[in-house]
């Protein structure tokens, strides 16, 4: 952690700007560009500040970066990006990507993403990441030149592996269950929270109607007039207070969302393990069958049914020379196979070891972050209650003077 | 029970003492001078071949001499209350007769004869009788006394004695025609002011009633969503280890706030909604009372107008005019006094209802605050414990 980039460099996503341009099909499009500012955190002499470098990136470039990192470091739980489209909206928030509130929250989310990567012991050292932060032009080409796309596993292959793997590491199976549960429970939580927020908004805002009626009523009253008027003012304050309260709660929702998306990253690591394990099992199976074939040819016994065996029985057997040639070929293949199996085994073990180390790191981070999020949620609730107490204390005084 | 059973008026157990009744219900005038205590409770369903209806127990305790006994217990149905109200209106056309709950609320969320509906009605009927009991004039009305004391058959026969349907219809016709003609031209300034006041008041109270109902509805929806919210945190805690306690803590806080929200809602529906509704009805009643005063004035004005063109029959009419003039003066005085009284009560009722609701809301927030603060304290204690244990070698 001492060497990570985050300690050496200040990174911020400071601005967002609407842009228009032409896309790949030469059609006009509108998109948002984000300004990334970086500054070296090195002890400077008095009064001197390190210069700030900056460049603009759009969301699709962030996506490309993340894809590159996921493929290049499959054993790492790669930090997720903020959501592409607004989800779990409650009625006030717009689902429009151009909505300023959404853009603002996305800006914060992108900054968070960069900071997470920059403070990761492995990821922070990646050169492509560094050039993402510092290289203005031609970054896309540099990424593509790494040829990372080739390393990407096909989705179909990964799915196939999930169903066919016989002996996955139990810890990864448990982890996959955990990430499924986490994803399910957080989405449910976010949905209900949004509904609760909607209803609370309704309660507060309807109180706002009191203000005008009280004011109009106070016009025909002599003794009650003052009390009504001032009470009405407090009702307006009460109704207006919900906007800030719910905006703050959106930050809490965003913190949960990050871990909702992290669940997907966890699953990706599990999938990689399954894929490797499947590969290993297939290779071992292949080796076993080749060895068996070899043995059968050498001893002339057919232990298992094979089409070749049947045809040779029907159409006559091979000559001893032919058989010998086949055995030689098989022996070569077997040797190759054994070497491959050995290296695959080693790869598998290394993967499990380094993946598990990062998973432990992730678990600690998750526990720390979520606990803090829950605490900050409690703080928000407390603040809301205190505001409510103040308003209603004032209102009560006004009413009692009616 | 298949018939309107006669209930023994001397029930051995009258559980409510006068003192507790004073505490339970707010009275308008001096409670120490009260000598008539009425409760409406124990709704019972009656099914006959023709209809189903509810009767309520009306229990009275009094120290007044005019009453033969000091305790009465009768059963009355809604129709009986309607009869009483119309008799009071007849006898005192320019007094403000308290409102009765409506016959049947179509737009409400409540079904006819549901427990909620019956309870709301019972409370309103109770209020109705007590408001009459507190009224300096109405409390001594004979029909009121009969309502409180007569057995079922006695009441039915007494009801039939009153002016027949035709005469009542005649009254209505006269009322309609005289209202068309006048009473407005020579209306004293005071009553024109009252009319203006009531027009605005009526508007505002209706809007307030709608607002309060809307708030109740939103609070209820909020409560429903909160019921689902807490358990999700509990569910989540089942798949976690380190943060399970924090998650359970949040779940428990949300559940407690949810229960507090239930009280929040109930406070509104028990305190503010009935009062606002009562005053919506009152505003209609007051408009009616002002109209009736105008009618009485109208009778006088039209007679005076007729006399002006017949100078010869002056003497014959003067007695009649005199009577009408007295009638108008009585009506005006009665209304003025009752109006002042009504306004004072309205102010008192509104002040008390809104203050209670504000207090109720305060309690809600205070309860929620305490819950979250204690959760926060538990979390920061944990953090400190963790930090300490990390420091140790």
UniProtKB/TrEMBL annotation, chain A:
PROSITE patterns: PX
InterPro entries attached to this UniProt entry: AH/BAR_dom_sf, PX_dom, PX_dom_sf, PX_SNX4, SNX4, SNX4_BAR
Domain PX as annotated: residue spans: 12-139
SMART domains referenced in this protein's UniProt entry, alphabetically: PX
Pfam families in the cross-refs: PX
Family according to the record: Belongs to the sorting nexin family.
PANTHER family: SORTING NEXIN-4
UniProt name for this protein: SNX4 protein
Name of the gene: Snx4
UniProtKB/TrEMBL annotation, chain B:
InterPro entries per the UniProt record, alphabetical: AH/BAR_dom_sf (IPR027267), BAR_SNX7 (IPR042131), PX_dom (IPR001683), PX_dom_sf (IPR036871), PX_SNX7 (IPR042130)
GO molecular function: phosphatidylinositol binding
SMART domains in the cross-refs: PX
Keywords: Coiled coil, Protein transport, Transport
Source organism, top-level taxon: Eukaryota
Coiled-coil intervals, chain numbering: 307-334
UniProt cross-references to PROSITE patterns, sorted A to Z: PX (PS50195)
Any one GO cellular component localisation term in the record: early endosome
PX domain residues: 34-155
Protein's GO biological process: autophagy of mitochondrion; endocytic recycling; piecemeal microautophagy of the nucleus; protein transport; reticulophagy
Pfam families, per database record: PX
SUPFAM superfamilies, sorted: BAR/IMD domain-like, PX domain
Family assignment from sequence similarity: Belongs to the sorting nexin family.
PANTHER family with a match to the protein in the record: SORTING NEXIN-4, SORTING NEXIN-7
Protein name (database record): SNX7 protein
Gene coding for it: Snx7
